[in-house]
Amino acid sequence: MKKITTASLLEMKKRAERIAVLTAYDATFAQLQDRAGIDVILVGDSAAMVMAGDSTTLSATMDQMLYHVSCVSKGIERALLVADMPFLSFQITPEETLENAGMFLAEASAEAVKLEGGKPVIETVKRLVDAGIPVMGHLGLTPQSIHKFGGWGVRAKGKVEAAQLYEDALALEEAGAFSIVLEKIPAQLAAKVSQALKIPTIGIGSGPDCDGQVLVNYDMLGLYEQMCLKFVRQYRKLGEEVRGAVKEFITDVKEGNFPSAEESYYTETKEDENIPHYPRP
Ligand code: KIV
């Protein structure tokens, strides 16, 4: 078992080995995914949606993210652990941003942070990298800007936005980012950006030519049923499994079939002599 680091990802790109990334929010899923051999675990601010039940990622807070990252870190031995910086945790003063990013590494055992945006975050990225904090960029459909975009549609379909995204990707690399997530952009643009960069791109809804792919674990397992996205491949339908198991449990309890004698504890004697008798008042 060789620990994955930011340097390993660069090596993987050099030898054209695809990078597999999944999100996780708790130690149990993190351990299952780590043992299965996932390369990177991202504690996404999608936690606000799949954990907290909100309709966007905007409500995720530093405290919540620190908690999830810390839980996930306890399940990981091999994968690189990346913490997503929540809305307004890095669009603030440089000092506060550095403090927030640093907390993910110092207090929650993350090994890198991810932050959304292009040009406006370049100076921030430089500052964090200079301070020894590896940064993953995130371009395209950046969910923290959902209200600016006005919906979850594909980004950078037009020439101007595509050119801006291309420039942003180069600038993020120049600023020291070790990788960039490309979310929901045309496959041709993602291929072009991936070719132009030395650092790996991680696609989500951005076609097959990125250097790696990321999915939200609850999406690919069929657990999150509120949104059905074209780019999500459901590897299992665990939502159906969970509903089925819960229904069986309910029936067993209602019909007195759970617990069985084997699932119960008894004293040695058949009588209830070990159980104290209290006189009735
Ligand atoms: O928050 C998240 O889960 C993400 C990934 C989907 C890239 O940003």
Describe this structure in words.
By secondary structure, the protein is of the alpha/beta class. It has a single domain, classed as Phosphoenolpyruvate-binding domains (TIM Barrel). Helices cover 39% and strands 13% of the residues. It is built from eleven helices and eight strands. It has an eight-stranded parallel beta barrel with strand order 1-2-3-4-5-6-7-8, surrounded by seven helices. Helix 2 (27-36) packs across helix 4 (62-73) and helix 8 (159-175) packs parallel to helix 9. The structure holds 3-methyl-2-oxobutanoic acid (KIV). The site of 3-methyl-2-oxobutanoic acid (KIV) has 12 residues, from strand 6.
Summarize the structure.
The protein has 281 residues and is an alpha/beta fold.
Q: DSSP helix count?
A: 11
Q: Which architecture per CATH?
A: Alpha-Beta Barrel
- The SS-based structural class is alpha/beta
End-to-end CA span:
66 Å
N-to-C SSE series? Answer: HEHEHHEHEHEHHEHEEHH
The global form is elongated
| Tally of individual domains | 1
Q: What does the average pLDDT come to?
A: 96
Q: Rg, please?
A: 23 Å
CATH topology: TIM Barrel
Oligomer category: single chain
CATH class: Alpha Beta
